[in-house]
Automatic annotation (TrEMBL):
Keywords, alphabetical: Lipid transport, Lipid-binding, Transport
Protein name: Cytoplasmic phosphatidylinositol transfer protein 1
Low complexity composition-biased segments: 282-309
Family: Belongs to the PtdIns transfer protein family. PI transfer class IIB subfamily.
Amino acid sequence: MVLTKEYRICMPLTVEEYQIGQLYMIARHSHEQTDSGEGVEVVENVACEDPEYGQGQYTEKRIHLSSRLPYWIQSFIPKVFYVTEKAWNYYPFTITGFTFSFQCSFIPKFSISIKTKYENNNGSTDNCLNLDTDALNERTVEFVDIAYDEVNPKHYKEEEDVRYFQSRKTGRGPLVEGWRETVIPIMCSYKIVQVSFEVWGLQTRAEDLIQRSIREILLLGHRQAFAWIDEWYGMTLEDVRMYEEQMQRETNTKVAGNGRSDVATTKGTARRSPNEAVDAGSSSTPAAHTPTTPSTPCTPKSKSWFSWS
């Protein structure tokens, strides 16, 4: 049985604006949440293309988080491990999948898949991601309110509380009760998250924990995307890609701070075709292959974790 939830997260932005805001938020958040030896490390970031979705961006990241897991998971997980996140971003549609970096006989069937689509509305589309009848019957729809849902106290910052925040550049905010029915512009992130953890005695507990963790990440990230609007509003896609590349280098340096040997060098941070030749003086390397879009992020045998995209 796969635990399926559809999260709908509205923001006082347009879908076009959020393309910039999302890239800025992910790069900055990953950098801020990374400690020495743990955090989000970018391995690959290259252009990709799909016959159905067109041109997009493929990213591969390693999430080092051993000490951040609950104690009951740490008890059977190696002390040093990372989760690989692979994402195909064909904005406004994305596919994300995750894989453990080690084979563990205790968790033979552990998978997560996330599909996302963005629309300029307040979450009113009933089947935004075109689920079939069975999937519609299995899903639970949950609205995430970036203003009035409680943020984990350890992540709370007064300057990011959008109940009181007002943008200097756009005049948007603060967000008052019922804002999703009155604010213009407004957009919604529709995210289908499927979690399967088929381990006897742990399945229900683990799947619930993972879904709650994903929801917490989505709440914080979308909240920050709006709270940081004065930092990214007016950036071009080229501007935010340059910022993203800078943050990736700094974040990878932080992850490598404890001298771990498994930290990779980021490949292909430039926005180009994966097979395009690179000048001899370039510091980036092209992807060794064209990253193929999966029909679903996780194959039946894959093992997975969580994401922003």
